[in-house]
Design goal:
The protein is an alpha+beta fold and 135 residues long. The protein has one domain: GTP Cyclohydrolase I, domain 2 (2-Layer Sandwich), CATH 3.30.1130.10. The protein is built from two helices and six strands.
Length: 135
């Protein structure tokens, strides 16, 4: 039985906290609702982060993302909320989220939000989105 969607993000200790390295994820099944019409909005989320002491646990992230299915949210608001929640959970050195929403009314929307930890002088490494061919 599948656990219920929820907003509890889990973490685990970074196995290499002394090294900057990039973790990239593609979440192709994000959905929320248009707060004006109630119609579903679909997006592909591209996450890239440089962990500090903690890494995001993937099953909890999946359940977190599912929790937006029945929630009304503007694209800009939901993208920034996800960024804030992920930063609060794992306190990364760097985190970038790009939410690419599917066409609605002839308009395709992409919202990009970033976080840099104060004092981190590193570069975010390769931010090219994850593609099927990267495996």
């Amino acid at each position: 039985m599948t656990p219920n969607p929820n907003r509890r993000l889990s973490t685990f200790p970074n196995p290499e906290p002394g090294r900057d390295y990039l973790i990239r994820m593609e979440i192709p099944e994000f959905t929320c609702l248009c707060p004006l019409t109630g119609q579903p909005d679909f997006a592909v989320l591209h996450l890239a982060y440089v962990p500090d002491q903690l890494c995001l646990e993937l099953k909890a992230l999946k359940l977190y993302v599912w929790s937006y299915r029945d929630e009304g949210a503007f694209h800009e608001a939901v993208t920034n909320r996800i960024l804030n929640d992920l930063v609060a959970a794992c306190q990364p050195r760097y985190l970038r989220i790009e939410a690419r929403f599917h066409i609605r009314g002839g308009i395709r929307t992409a919202v990009v939000a970033e976080h840099r930890k104060a004092g981190w002088a590193g570069q975010p490494l390769d931010l090219e989105p994850v593609r099927d061919s990267w495996i």
